[in-house]
Amino acid sequence: MDIIFLIGRILFGALFLGSAMGHLTQTAAMAGYAASRGVPMAALATRATGVQIAVGGAMVILGVWGDLGAILLVAFLVATAFLMHPFWKESEAATKQMEMIQFNKDIALAGGALAFLWAFSQDVGLTLTGPLLF
Predict the structure, then answer these.
(1) Is residue 28 assigned to a domain?
(2) Residue 49 lies in a domain
(3) What is the CA radius of gyration of the chain?
(4) What's residue 39's pLDDT?
(5) Do residues 60 and 73 lie in contact, with contact meaning Cβ atoms separated by under 8 Å?
(6) End-to-end Cα distance, the chain
(7) Number of domains in the chain
(8) Which of 61, 85, 102, 134 is an S-S bond match for 121, by CB 3.0 to 4.6 Å?
(9) Where are the alpha helices (DSSP H) in the chain?
(10) Range of the domain at 56
């Protein structure tokens, strides 16, 4: 079962490493979108969240304080869902549906990250460290 957990960590964490690359290499475009959603200091926020999800994703993949990595990802995902995808504010049906899909995706991924938080609190194998917090 340890290998299944490792494969799941790699698949899950890879999503965030790819997204982090976008945050850090396409900052201007992503910050423009964040600013349009009312995020203050959008360029700084884009860079900071890029680092946050890169670190969190790497921690989950490598099993280095995976509990902390999972918490970093949950914090990013919940904040992103509410700040970037407030579907309830949209009036056009197609836009509202797209934002609802993105909101639900972020919340579902946050649920997955919470499951990883729990798993890292157990005695799992194929990690470089044990949990930091739990």
Answers:
(1) yes
(2) yes
(3) 16
(4) 95
(5) yes
(6) 21
(7) 1
(8) 134
(9) 2-25, 27-36, 42-62, 66-84, 93-121
(10) 2-121
Question: What is the token pair recorded at 116?
Answer: 């990883």
**Would residue 48 count as lying in a domain?**
yes
Of residues 20, 12, 4, 11, the one with CA closest to residue 70:
12
CA distance 63 to 46: 25
Q: Which two tokens stand for residue 36?
A: 């349009």
Q: What is the pLDDT of residue 123?
A: 79
Distances from the Cα of 41 to the Cα of 38, 55, 73, angstroms: 9, 21, 21
The CB-side HSE value for 31 (13 A sphere, CA atoms) comes to: 15
Give pLDDT, residue 1: 85
Is there a domain that residue 7 lies in? yes
- Tokens representing 107 are 């919340």
- Cβ–Cβ under 8 Å, residues 39 and 27: no
Q: What is the pTM of this model?
A: 0.96
Query: 87: which DSSP letter?
Result: G
Tokens of 52: 């946050």
Return the pLDDT at 24: 98
